[in-house]
Amino acid sequence: MKLSEFCQKLAIPFSGEEREINGLNALQEAGQNEVSFLENPKYASQLSGTNAAAVLVTEAMAQHLPEQCTPLIVDEPYIVLAKASAFFAPLRLEHDLPESIIGEGTVIEEGAFVAKGSRIGENCHIMPGAFVGNNVTIGDNTILYPNVTVYRDCKLGSDCIIHAGTVIGSDGFGFATTKLGEHVKIYQNGNVVIEDDVEIGSNTTIDRAVFKSTVIKKGVRIDNLVQVGHNCVVGEYSVLVSQVGLAGSSNLGRNVVMGGQSATAGHLSIAPFTTIAARGGVTKNVDKAGVYGGFPLMEHRLWLKLQGKLARLLKA
């Protein structure tokens, strides 16, 4: 839509260069036909380098924008972003796309559903009850067990195994809360990208990104009942054990191992070859590889000593 139309829909005053707008994106990643936003002054330094066509900002922050970027002055940028996300949400299911392309040797069992616009490689097996949405891409030799759901626009690599009941590409847990405590849905308009040689257990959920992609890299192994939030990146050959939870925008390096019921807070990173013991709680960046446990997180050896001392105190 035109930028002026975008502003009109949101009751924002508009004066500036007219542009065609095709989506929303983060400040550092937005292109010349996208709108971004800034809510937290902590990230004000990113304003000067943005390539966005326009940015939703408060009046106090507008002065930091580059000359070619149109400031859209609002009191609550995050709330307005949430409302605007609905403008670019794709249809749940489209029927006027080209027929799906199914590779040689692939078996689509009776009771499975493959939506139009999708492309499935050779020698795949899609079992009964599986759902593959519009514009999904699946590589060669990949297996979807019964009742696997792959939402539209997601990408799965070759040699993957997705076990029964897993959901790939469901909406991330995103909403903006008004001053009155009402929750405004942020439509998740990105996707999920799963690279080659990934195995995912049953009843796991991997949320699609708000913008761009949630990424599961090559060789990852994910157990049953794991939650991966929107915009996470799970590095090559990492292992997530049952009931692990990754909050949005967690970034795991290569060969990270997370034990059962361990979890991360959002927007943090874990160094490659790090192990988080069962029930470990990661609340800040882990910059050095090692074995960690407990909550708050500490070196696992130290955590074991602490538990031993607590046990002796209880006996005293």
Automatic annotation (TrEMBL):
<dbReference type="Pfam" id="PF04613">
    <property type="entry name" value="LpxD"/>
</dbReference>
<dbReference type="InterPro" id="IPR020573">
    <property type="entry name" value="UDP_GlcNAc_AcTrfase_non-rep"/>
</dbReference>
<comment type="function">
    <text>Catalyzes the N-acylation of UDP-3-O-acylglucosamine using 3-hydroxyacyl-ACP as the acyl donor. Is involved in the biosynthesis of lipid A, a phosphorylated glycolipid that anchors the lipopolysaccharide to the outer membrane of the cell.</text>
</comment>
<keyword id="KW-0012">Acyltransferase</keyword>
<feature type="active site" description="Proton acceptor">
    <location>
        <position position="230"/>
    </location>
</feature>
<dbReference type="InterPro" id="IPR007691">
    <property type="entry name" value="LpxD"/>
</dbReference>
<comment type="similarity">
    <text>Belongs to the transferase hexapeptide repeat family. LpxD subfamily.</text>
</comment>
<dbReference type="InterPro" id="IPR011004">
    <property type="entry name" value="Trimer_LpxA-like_sf"/>
</dbReference>
<keyword id="KW-0443">Lipid metabolism</keyword>
<dbReference type="InterPro" id="IPR001451">
    <property type="entry name" value="Hexapep"/>
</dbReference>
<comment type="pathway">
    <text>Bacterial outer membrane biogenesis; LPS lipid A biosynthesis.</text>
</comment>
<feature type="domain" description="UDP-3-O-[3-hydroxymyristoyl] glucosamine N-acyltransferase non-repeat region">
    <location>
        <begin position="19"/>
        <end position="86"/>
    </location>
</feature>
<keyword id="KW-0677">Repeat</keyword>
<comment type="subunit">
    <text>Homotrimer.</text>
</comment>
<dbReference type="Pfam" id="PF00132">
    <property type="entry name" value="Hexapep"/>
</dbReference>
<keyword id="KW-0444">Lipid biosynthesis</keyword>
<dbReference type="GO" id="GO:0103118">
    <property type="term" value="F:UDP-3-O-[(3R)-3-hydroxyacyl]-glucosamine N-acyltransferase activity"/>
</dbReference>
<keyword id="KW-0808">Transferase</keyword>
<keyword id="KW-0441">Lipid A biosynthesis</keyword>
<protein>
    <recommendedName>
        <fullName>UDP-3-O-acylglucosamine N-acyltransferase</fullName>
        <ecNumber>2.3.1.191</ecNumber>
    </recommendedName>
</protein>
